[in-house]
């Protein structure tokens, strides 16, 4: 996915009320940008880090600029969760993801119980293939984790995919890692144990899991390479009264 123009560079100051991020421009001006990410962004909110902004050029929008990426430890990380679905769809349509036929791809198609599938493909033999895309920015060492916050919606989507798989329909959970420094991906059981349980049930039901890292560049956001998906045994729950760890590998 290529962008029509280069991003505006700034420096990260703080994020608050989930959807707001204060940034400082090179000339010292401080402005508030829209944060298009409802997750925890654990490990990404480093004060003083470089950020990229996209200019809507709208005089009527409350927040003219959208925060797109942040640089942490030399790695650029995409924080805009509206982009991965488009990147994956374009890659499938271009035949860049082995095993997926992007011809006739449709997006946001109603299915299940008041749900919409991100991508609906048609296999060469005419059978449908349902693809749900989830993105993550969370990494510990070289392991990417999903989710970075409790996600009831994510559990619901896994349940829908599992029901399809039990009926013999091809169902896929596609994890988009919004950075290129991860080597594997696994569920963040310490953050959302129930999601981890739901993911394991979905895999047992026949849901496929694919994970890809991405290149985050000034001019484009693109898939990088497929990552091994690791599904370790579900750890024991923490002792009563003890809080869950913030990171998946702590």
Protein architecture, described:
By secondary structure, this protein is α+β, with helices and mostly antiparallel strands. It folds into 2 domains: 8-78, OB fold (Dihydrolipoamide Acetyltransferase, E2P) (Beta Barrel), CATH 2.40.50.580; 84-227, 3-Layer(aba) Sandwich (Trna Endonuclease, Chain: A, domain 1). The protein is 15% helix and 38% strand. The protein has 3 helices and 15 strands. It has helices at 84-93, 152-166, 193-205; strands at residues 8-16, 20-24, 30-34, 50-55, 65-72, 75-78, 106-111, 115-122, 128-136, 139-140, 143-146, 170-177, 184-187, 208-216, 221-227. The strands form 3 sheets. A 6-stranded antiparallel β-sheet has the order 3-2-1-4-5-6, with no helix packed on it. A 6-stranded mixed β-sheet has the order 7-8-9-12-14-15. A hairpin with a 4-residue loop joins strand 14 (208-216) and strand 15. The radius of gyration is 19 Å and the shape is globular. Mean pLDDT is 95; it is low at 244-250.
Helix content: 10-25%
Distance between the termini: 34 Å
Share of β-strand residues: 35-45%
Q: What is the CATH third-level topology name of the largest domain?
A: Trna Endonuclease, Chain: A, domain 1
Biggest sheet, strands in spatial order?
3-2-1-4-5-6
CATH architecture of the largest domain: 3-Layer(aba) Sandwich
Structural class from helices and strands? alpha+beta
List segments where confidence is low: pLDDT < 50 over at least 5 consecutive residues.
244-250
The biggest beta sheet reads:
6 strands, antiparallel
Radius of gyration based on Cα positions: 19 Å
Q: What gross morphology would you assign?
A: globular
Order of helices and strands: EEEEEEHEEEEEHEEHEE
Mean pLDDT over the full residue set: 95
What's the number of domains?
Answer: 2
Total E-strand runs: 15
The number of helical elements comes to: 3
CATH class of the largest domain: Alpha Beta
